[in-house]
Amino acid sequence: MTFSNSSVEPDTLPAVEEARLTSVSPRLAPCVALQQMWRWLLLTTLALLFPVTNATLAVWQPWFAAGVGGLGAMMIVAGWLEAKRRAYGVREHDVIYHRGLLIHRTQVLPLVRLQHVETLSSPIERAFGLVRLACFTAGGRGADLLLEGLPARRAEAVKHYLLSRLDSDGDGQPPPSPPPSASG
């Protein structure tokens, strides 16, 4: 038996950029902004109220807190804008998730590697009607793909589709239905 490993012409490969992606829920942007706001409000309050014993540093403390608050405001706006750019796609053989504002990140998870799917939501996400869909592969500690910003009904539909693919027999078709029982 001879080993063969032929080259593949790059121009013939399917382009991920050509995949049709669906934007996540528009409610994700205010949800992310609210989550960011709570974090930065806590940090700004800590910067303002942290006890400073040095008189020279105490004079600068309000300015430092204002700087932390200003940085927080910029991060809230950046989070809002980044959340509005997120998109996902579910294809026959993979799931795609695109995110990022300055640094774009596109994750592709082949469905043949998928082992487990679960839904997650924080109280803030539930208030906005949003769910995260975590996709796991074998051997990983955490989710290999985390789809954020899906409406609850859409997340359940995608989850059920992915779980049905797990139950398929490898050819993309669901397994045959069990035969009816003789007593039934």
UniProtKB/TrEMBL annotation:
Keyword Ribosomal protein applies: no
Alphabetically ordered keywords of this record: Membrane, Transmembrane, Transmembrane helix
Signal sequence coordinates: none
Pro residues bias spans: 173-184
Region (Disordered): 165-184
Residues annotated as domain YdbS-like PH: 86-162
Membrane-crossing segments per the record: 63-81
Domain of life according to the entry: Bacteria
Pfam families recorded: bPH_2
Record flagged with keyword Protein biosynthesis: no
InterPro entries registered for this protein in UniProt: YdbS-like_PH
Protein name as annotated: Membrane protein
Annotated source species: Litchfieldella qijiaojingensis
Taxon lineage: Bacteria, Pseudomonadati, Pseudomonadota, Gammaproteobacteria, Oceanospirillales
